[in-house]
Amino acid sequence: MVKQKPTFEAIKPDFGHSFTYQKFDEHRLNKNNLWHYHPELELVYVNGGSGKRQIGSHISYYTNGDLILIGSNLPHCGFTDALTGNTSETVIQMKLEFLGPDFFNLPEMKKIASLFNSASGGIAFSGKTKRKIGDKMEVLEYQTDFQRLLSILNILNELGNSEDMRLLNAEGFSFTTDVKDNDRINIVFNHVKNNFKEELTLEEISSMVSMTIPSFCRYFKKITNKTYIQFVNEYRLVHASKLLAEKPMSITEVCFECGFNNFSHFNKSFKAFTGQNPSEYRNELKNVMV
Fold first, then answer.
1. Dist CA 107 CA 91 (whole Å)
2. Distance CA 228, CA 77 (A)
3. Which of 242, 252, 255, 276 pairs as cysteine with 281 (C-beta 3.0–4.6 A)?
4. The whole model's pTM is what?
């Protein structure tokens, strides 16, 4: 079995630039869909479409596009692929000190500094903020380097003042600097990502990371603020959300396709997770997308 860990992505702005700007579309797909991390903050706008978010220990499903700010060294997977159905994807990456070590300590930068601090757990923006900032990010394509820099500062300031935000790892995600611990949590995340449709036992995963079951349970809860069983079930439920939205499958088929082996338990868990039972969730999405 291949034991993957998140790839360290080396991001180097082009010569003469302090940040990285990229735009992807149907002619140029973003192929970086692996579990990865980097010291740069990353602001991503997905124009339309739907897909999964996996940022730290947070897993969720987005529809009608997405706007996300990811903090420094916060592991995450790519948000789009050939099946996402988005029009384009715009990505801005910058180091915390990309304008100098003290720039964001200025009084006028207080909101942005606070935003960067909150981004350590990942932030998703919705509503008017998503639409307005998404438009501004797409306009960057036609601006000069200096105009882009001013626009990015304006974008960050507006995000810092927005109320349309949700912390994705609200209870924290501790990505420890210990290499051994990094390898362990990454083995766990990738094992769940690749095998969530199968039976996943504590005995198996504890053995994979060379820990006893009690030690593993304490370790995983400390890192993610979730139990392993909770994390696995959330991954399955997010996949169920995706199938309900995108595939003409019966709810029973969705249940078993996601790794649940009890329909009643699936219904109860889905309602606890989303606030709706599967049929209500699917019907609401149909009404939104009409």
1. 27
2. 19
3. 276
4. 0.75
Going 149 to 155 to 159 to 161, the CA torsion angle's sign is: positive
Instruction: Return all residues near 199 (Cβ < 8 A) that are at least 6 apart.
Output: 259
Q: Is 271 helix (H, G, I), strand (E, B) or coil?
A: helix
User: Do β-strands 7-8 and 36-37 pair in parallel, antiparallel, or remain unpaired?
Assistant: parallel
Strands of 78-198, DSSP E:
88-94, 123-125, 165-167
C-alpha span between 63 and 46 (Å, rounded): 10
* SS3 (DSSP) at 276: coil
Q: How far apart are CA 164 and CA 111, in angstroms?
A: 15
Write out pLDDT tens, residues 273-282: 888 999 998 8
Q: Which residues contact 10 (CB under 8 A, 6 or more apart)?
A: 38
Both structure tokens of 181: 């611990």
Q: What are phi and psi of 77, to 5 degrees?
A: -100, 165
So what's the pLDDT on residue 9?
59
Specify the amino acid at residue 178.
D
